[in-house]
């Protein structure tokens, strides 16, 4: 059901944890109970660090890990252009009923960038 990339990210949990003194956003899915917290530090308009905490299905956990990998080292303007489809491509697809994991990660990133 899940791609090798999703399974690896869930098993390894890269960048899991909280990031003190960072911008953060928390999003949830009230239907299934998934929660994703995203943390981002920037310097001179570039994302230097990013971490996440997630509880819920493998899709939201993998999406949280993936978005931290995708944004690190990127200018904020580039990170702002990340869309759900980009994240799903990075994850090598998600089942249609699990797409909400990627949507949550992108929503959290946009909340941080827009604030």
Give the topology, please.
Blueprint: H1 4-12, E1 23-28, E2 35-43, E3 46-55, H2 58-71, H3 76-79, H4 84-90, H5 100-114
Antiparallel strand pairs: 1-2, 2-3
Can you walk me through this structure?
This protein is an alpha+beta fold. It is 43% helix and 22% strand. Helix 1 (4-12) packs across helix 2 (58-71), helix 2 (58-71) packs across helix 5 (100-114) and helix 4 packs across helix 5 (100-114). The longest helix has 15 residues, at 100-114. It is globular and about 40 Å long. The model has no long low-confidence stretch (mean pLDDT 97).
Structure summary:
By secondary structure, the protein is of the alpha+beta class. The protein has helices at residues 4-12, 58-71, 76-79, 84-90, 100-114, and strands at residues 23-28, 35-43, 46-55.
Can you tell me the number of structural domains?
1
Shape: globular
CATH architecture assignment name: Alpha-Beta Complex
Quick one: how many beta strands? Answer: 3
CATH topology: Sufe protein. Chain: A
Mean pLDDT: 97
Q: Number of helix segments? A: 5
SSE order, as H and E? HEEEHHHH
Strand order of the largest sheet: 1-2-3
CATH top level is Alpha Beta
Spans where pLDDT lies below 50 across 5 or more residues: none
Using only C-alpha atoms, the radius of gyration works out to: 13 Å
**Largest sheet properties:** 3 strands, antiparallel
Please state the structural category: alpha+beta
Q: Roughly how much helix do the residues carry, as a percent range?
A: 40-55%
The percent range for strand residues is: 15-25%
CA-to-CA gap between the ends? Answer: 36 Å
